[in-house]
């Protein structure tokens, strides 16, 4: 049997626990700033109009059935996904140095990448994450028994990037380490390196022969501009790195529950690059087969239809600007309300940070007080989901913050 010493009770996932507590709260003023999903100005989930359109087109398509996809997924989807992140003109694509495999959203892409590196990366590399990072990174890499460590990332004093600390840790890491990087809209801080800082990081990673692993969960959702949000990844590819990318379509298509994602492995330029890519592809297929057999079809079909149709693609870009624009407006509104109230401290970081999340700098005690006194729900580390704010509650939230900070 399974005695307690062998199977102890595990703690509840903090984020899912927070969601349950929010649902149980009967107060009508309650505010959910925990959720990592887009909400419209009425705090409701938003089905992107272009996704609704694609959905109808698919439902009316008599040629569709429920057969299995190939092991590596829907080819129209994976090749469009590669163009989206790398840029259609990427030499890595024309030189056939990229292998793309459909995954169970971004989480599945990180997992399959971790599994592949565990099995095939020479030596026993340590994976370095930013401190803090998306909580699941640690679990995913630990589950496949890769040693993990962290590099400093967030400066408590500036509420911006601790660039010196980050570089220092990356240069002290043993050569050939795996460095996990958030492609854009860092979760949970909302703090990204500038382009010059990315360039310095690329130089440093190259000197140290580190392997970059990009996690890209917010392309287009962060700035509203797909190329801008992919800049760091494209720069690293341009610099000739061998790297991999976990790509999620949960946020930018609002396809959270459909689990549409992709894993890309980019081989560095060399005369044998194509055959290396093909060997890697063959091993990834074996891993995929034993893990999930083949990926789910529906979300990938929706994304594929939109990515491969010029008109739908343009509509999607418009929808991305709607989401990112609303979030950017909420950042501005929150900062200006706090400044108007004269709330002690500086609040420029709210608008300096980007993407779904903001690290407010609120302490664990202040977060608990906000929940007790104002029915505001956010994670203990002071992270808020900007998508939970809207024109109806931003002032209420700013006033609540003002009270706990004073
Ligand atoms: N990586 C990061 C940094 C994330 O923030 C998320 C989602 O919150 C993911 C990956 C994966 O999300 P999903 O598995 O829903 O695509």
TrEMBL record:
Query: Pfam families in the record, alphabetically?
Result: Aminotran_1_2
Question: Which InterPro entries does the UniProt record give?
Answer: Aminotransferase_I/II_large, Asp_trans, NHTrfase_class1_PyrdxlP-BS, PyrdxlP-dep_Trfase, PyrdxlP-dep_Trfase_major, PyrdxlP-dep_Trfase_small
Reactions performed catalytically: L-aspartate + 2-oxoglutarate = oxaloacetate + L-glutamate
> Which Gene Ontology terms describe the biological processes this protein takes part in?
aspartate biosynthetic process
The UniProt GO MF terms for this protein read: L-aspartate:2-oxoglutarate aminotransferase activity; pyridoxal phosphate binding
Q: Which UniProt keywords apply?
A: Aminotransferase, Pyridoxal phosphate, Transferase
Tell me its EC number(s), please. Answer: 2.6.1.1
Taking every annotated instance into account, which residue ranges of this chain make up the domain Aminotransferase class I/classII large?
29-400
Question: What are its GO cellular component terms?
Answer: cytosol
- Matches recorded under Gene3D superfamilies: Aspartate Aminotransferase, domain 1 (3.90.1150.10), Type I PLP-dependent aspartate aminotransferase-like (Major domain) (3.40.640.10)
**According to its UniProt record, which cofactors does this protein need?**
pyridoxal 5'-phosphate
Oligomeric and partner information: Homodimer.
Report the sequence similarity comment from the record: Belongs to the class-I pyridoxal-phosphate-dependent aminotransferase family.
Task: Write down what this protein is called.
Answer: Aspartate aminotransferase
Question: Per the UniProt entry, what species is this protein from, by scientific name?
Answer: Calycina marina
Recall the taxonomic lineage recorded for the source organism: Eukaryota, Fungi, Dikarya, Ascomycota, Pezizomycotina
């Amino acid at each position: 049997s399974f005695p307690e010493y062998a199977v102890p009770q595990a703690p509840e996932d903090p984020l899912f626990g927070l969601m349950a507590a929010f649902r149980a709260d009967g107060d009508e003023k309650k505010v959910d700033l925990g959720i990592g999903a887009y909400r419209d100005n009425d705090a409701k989930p938003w089905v992107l109009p272009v996704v609704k359109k694609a959905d109808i087109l698919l439902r009316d398509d008599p040629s569709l059935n429920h057969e299995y996809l190939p092991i590596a997924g829907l080819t129209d989807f994976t090749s469009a996904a590669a163009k989206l992140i790398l840029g259609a003109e990427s030499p890595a694509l024309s030189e056939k140095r990229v292998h793309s495999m459909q995954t169970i959203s971004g989480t599945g892409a990180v997992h399959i990448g971790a599994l592949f590196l565990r099995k095939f990366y020479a030596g026993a590399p340590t994976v370095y994450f930013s401190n803090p990072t998306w909580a699941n990174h640690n679990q995913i890499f630990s589950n496949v028994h890769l040693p993990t460590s962290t590099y400093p990332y967030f400066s408590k004093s500036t509420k911006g990037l601790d660039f010196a600390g980050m570089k220092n840790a990356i240069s002290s890491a043993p050569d050939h380490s795996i460095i996990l990087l958030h492609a854009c809209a860092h979760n949970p801080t909302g703090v990204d390196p500038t382009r010059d800082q990315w360039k310095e990081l690329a130089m440093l990673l190259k000197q140290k022969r580190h392997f970059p692993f990009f996690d890209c969960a917010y392309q287009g959702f962060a700035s509203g501009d797909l190329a801008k949000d992919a800049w760091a990844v494209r720069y690293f590819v341009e610099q000739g790195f061998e790297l991999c990318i976990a790509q999620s379509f949960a946020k930018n298509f609002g396809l959270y529950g459909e689990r549409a994602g992709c894993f890309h492995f980019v081989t560095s330029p060399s005369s044998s690059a194509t055959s290396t890519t093909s060997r890697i592809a063959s091993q990834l297929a074996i891993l995929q087969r034993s893990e999930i057999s083949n990926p789910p079809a529906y979300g990938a079909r929706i994304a594929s239809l939109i990515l491969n149709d010029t008109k739908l693609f343009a509509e999607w870009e418009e929808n991305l600007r709607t989401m990112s624009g609303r979030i950017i407006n909420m950042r501005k509104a929150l900062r200006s309300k706090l400044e108007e109230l004269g709330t002690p401290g500086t609040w420029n970081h709210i608008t300096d940070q980007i993407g779904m999340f903001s690290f407010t700098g609120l302490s664990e005690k202040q977060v608990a007080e906000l929940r007790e006194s104002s029915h505001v729900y956010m994670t203990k580390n002071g992270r808020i989901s900007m998508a939970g704010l809207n024109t109806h509650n931003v002032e209420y939230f700013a006033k609540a913050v003002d009270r706990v900070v004073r």
